[in-house]
Amino acid sequence: MADVQAWTTPSAGPGRPELRAVPGAGAPKLKVDSLSFYYGKFKALDGVTFDIPEKRITAIIGPSGCGKSTLLRVFNRMYDLVPNSRAVGAVELDGENILSTRKLLELRQRVGMVFQRPSPFPMSIRDNISFAPRLLGWKNDRIRAAVEDSLERAALLDEVKDRLDDPATSLSGGQQQRLAIARCIAVSPEVILMDEPCSALDPIATLKIEDLMATLTRDFTIVIVTHNMQQAARVSDFTAFMLMNPDGRFGELIEFAPTADLFNQPQDQRTEAYITGRFG
Amino acid sequence: MPRLTFERELASLREALVRMGTLVESQIEAALDALRRRDGSAAEKVRNEDQYLNELFRQMREQVFMVISTQQPVARDLRYLMGLQWIATELERMGDYAVRIARMTGTLVALPDRPLRAEFGLMGELAIGQVHDILEALIDQNEPRAREVAARDNEIDRLYHRVFEDLVKEMGNGHVDTDGALRSVTLLLVAHNLERISDRVTNVAEDIVFLHSGQVVELG
Question: Is the CB of B2 less than 8 angstroms away from the CB of A229?
Fold first, then answer.
């Protein structure tokens, strides 16, 4: 236990505490404090400190290898699946440090994830969505309502309401991704993590997902990792820019700001170089 | 350096803007020279030359639009393109003022010759100096210089008001015939156009500040 304590207590590392609060951010949903992350001896993240505002869209951008997907995976402890990985520091979800929680099932219900590839389960559209609620032991009536409600909220119901028992794999790529979102919101999460959710989609399907994201912020806090800077600029309220430290080879947070500020007047030269395409 | 195409486009736009600036400066000089020498054909030449300026402006507008739509610039790059476009608009307007002064020279040439007030020489020199220096501030990307040039606006304003009052007094003295009234009104318009050139210089200075800092400021 002593070891766990050492891993989860915020270090007095460098971090960038001045990035913590940004103007107009409102209440924080996730508070990231001096977060460092290791795969074995390899340090992937160093001293990341910032607050993710509630019911807003926060985009994480940066070049490949800067640790943005690693950071996203910390938010619902997906890294637990990777042997020898560990997080140091704190990530608080409504004040509770998720790095030390033992209630993983509850955490992953509260913090859902949508991946780059839609990956529907090899079952019907309906069963894809009722899968998690069934695991949670919900009653049939509640599950039925959740299927309809989440398809509606994922802007997919109109397209699939007459074929809920068709295999989910019969849907188009864009529909499958909206199904993945419906599957995620079926269990009423509070935070939705999205890892490059549109990179496998065409521009029209992408715009549908982006519109959907905007409506989802009525109920959910969204954190999206994207390679597409125009997408980050279009959809997000706040943007975090990460970069790999050239000496330490670990990812760090360079700038966190309201999206309009970050894309118009970035404060850090490295951010400016990256968003204007003069990186490297 | 990455983004070679984009950098090339920016360089060519910068060059086009400097060309516009140089042309505007010489147009204003030529218009004032024609006014001083009462040279109708020189004034006519200023009016004709304006079409080159207009064409340069048209090309720049197209190019800025093309670069924005194909290169999707952000941050400093986007500011730069917007700033260049705004400055080009100001320069084009200054060119129009030179044309108006040339037109008024055409009117004055047809009237009896009388010496020009000293204020016109002073205002002309100040305006040309401001245009020249603001272009230098633009080329050198010198924001403090741009602010300094804009601040000189006050002197032209002061001279304009003096000319205005004197000419109105003259028209009201009871001894002015139709030609005299036309001459006074025409000179008033010349002074007004010089004052407007100076205002446009202030706008360019504001654009230079925007170009560099992203701050929208009000100078002068």
Answer: no
Cβ–Cβ gap A265/B75 under 8 Å: yes
| Predicted complex ipTM exceeds 0.85 | no
**Closest-CA residue to A180 (of A214, A144, A155, A217):** A155
Q: Which of B67, B76, B210 to mutate to test the interface with A (most CBs of A within 10 A)?
A: B76
Q: How far is A90 from chain B (nearest CA, A)?
A: 33
Closest by CA to B200, choosing from B131, B125, B122, B119, is B131
Per-residue model confidence as pLDDT tens digits over A57-95: 999 999 998 999 999 999 999 998 889 999 999 999 999
**Cβ–Cβ contact A42 with B under 8 A:** no
Q: What is the pLDDT of residue B51?
A: 96
φ/ψ of residue B12, rounded to 5: -70, -35
- Taking only Cα atoms into account, the Rg of chain B, rounded to an integer number of angstroms, comes to 19
pTM above 0.90, yes or no: no
Cβ A277–B6 below 8 Å, yes or no?
Answer: yes
Strand order across the A96-97 sheet? A96-97, A85-93, A28-39, A42-53, A251-258, A238-244, A57-61, A221-225, A191-195, A111-114
Contact assignment for A278 to B3 by CB distance below 8 Å: yes
